[in-house]
Amino acid sequence: MTASRFLFWATLVALAAALATCNAGSLGGSGGESASTFQKRIEAASGAPLEPERSSEEQALDDQLFALASVFDGYLGVAVHDIERNRTVHFNGERTLPQQSLSKLWVTLAVLQKVDAGELDLAERVSVRRSDLTVFHQPLRKLVLARGAVNTDYADLMRRAITESDNTANDMLLKRVGGPDGVRNALGKAGLGQIKFGPGEVPMQSALAGLQWDPSYSLGKRFFEARKTVPAATRKRVFDAYVSDPVDGARPNAIAMALARLARGELLEPQGTATFLRLL
């Protein structure tokens, strides 16, 4: 994978992180305010150091980001990192925002760390059963319900988690690396402690809906039906609290930098790095 291709992917990831939002007032600047002025005002207010003088190309990109992001009706952060020059252009990139499915990246990081350490073979066989099903997007569910179980390996689960955003595949990986604490340990080992990892998809999504998880929610539309029984005020209160202090929060700048370090081979051994980048 070329640096330019990875930069594009990293940009999309940082943008996707920012788009896990709630309906709120726009964060754009006042009429006529330039992108650089708005960015400096944000950084000054947050106490973050101002960036060095930008090149004309960086300033043009910053202006484009501002034009796109300032009209978004919600909380938004965007980060674009140049791997070769180690430079970042961002909009609200220092704001902690929910990650949602981007957290699958860190589960895969934890898996490949274990592979590097000789504690896991990606060819290890594993069975996915009805009791393992989760919530929302999980293409594996159709196969599990049709067959009763799916017998596969961790390489396949990792591919499904990253390329298909399969929540059940990701949850199987999460169990294998020791649960949320295993992923948090992996982030700490990689020097990515500023990126938070939540309790996992099932407990987090249940809590966001104001529900206690029931395995039956993994089937059909039962989760959505149960969610409708929760008072709207309760759901709004829980969701607003999550957005203001997300249990899976990270700054777009931190995500973009983590991906840049991955591309430079700083997070994993060469084979693990190559495996991860092929998935991206």
**Helix segment tally:** 13
Question: How are the strands of the biggest sheet laid out side by side?
Answer: 1-2
Flag low-confidence runs.
2-9, 11-31
Question: What's the alpha carbon Rg, rounded to whole Å?
Answer: 20 Å
The number of distinct β-strands equals 6
Compact summary:
The N terminus is likely disordered. The chain is built from 13 helices and six strands.
Question: Can you describe this structure?
Answer:
The structure is a single chain. The longest helix has 16 residues. Strand 1 and strand 2 form a beta hairpin. The chain has 13 helices and six strands. It has 280 residues and is mainly alpha-helical. The protein starts with a helix and ends with a helix. The N terminus is likely disordered. The chain is globular and about 60 Å long. A two-stranded antiparallel ribbon has the order 1-2. The protein has a two-stranded antiparallel ribbon with strand order 3-6. Strands 4-5 form a two-stranded antiparallel ribbon. Helix 6 packs across helix 7.
Descriptors:
about 280 residues; mainly alpha; two-stranded antiparallel sheet; two-stranded antiparallel ribbon; 13 helices; about 10% strand
